Amino acid sequence: MNSLKVSIVATLVALCVATNYALVGVFQVKAMDFIVFVGGFCFGPVAGAFIGILSWAVYGVINPHGFVPQVWLATMFSEAIYGLLGGLLGKNLALTSFSDERFKLSVFFGTMGFILTLIYDLITNIAYALTFGIPIIVAIVFGTPYTILHQVSNMAIFGVGSIPVIAVLKKLSGGEWFGIFKK
């Protein structure tokens, strides 16, 4: 990575941590997952995974809800999935023209946010159950309302925010985008 991309990745990590603290009072509504996803989409799967891991490496240690090493490792791994899949999608969508398909693309991004959040919450609920000796099914059942809230909020954030934020990040980084987000 060149110095511009390194600085953008560092800025995205800082933004993840800052938004998590800013939204600490708003339960299950966070911008971190979205920022990691678009970071991966714009800068590739490795950079995206790195943004996710670093964000939780910092936030998880000084988490206002407490620090549990096993859950912390699970959240770092799970957060990396957002960036990894965002990066893989970015590579695949870079060769496709969606200039007249903004609504469909927004729905696609919202759906990705919903699915990725389900995966994230399943992994972290299982890690929580294993850590505290709770039956996995109990952790999943009692975690369902929180998972649904997290999924719905991420679906909205990903669906509404992906196209404009990706377009701005690509423009700021000087990258060509093969006409995907041009009008």
Q: Can you describe this structure?
A:
With 183 residues, this protein is mostly helical. The chain has a single domain, classed as Arp2/3 complex 21 kDa subunit ARPC3, CATH 1.10.1760.20. Helices cover 78% and strands 0% of the residues. The protein contains six helices and no strands. The protein has helices at 3-22, 32-43, 45-61, 69-93, 102-132, 136-172. The longest helix has 37 residues, at 136-172. The radius of gyration is 16 Å and the shape is globular. It starts with a helix and ends in an 11-residue tail after the last helix. Mean pLDDT is 89; it is low at 177-183.
List keywords for this structure.
single chain; 183 residues; mainly alpha; Arp2/3 complex 21 kDa subunit ARPC3; globular
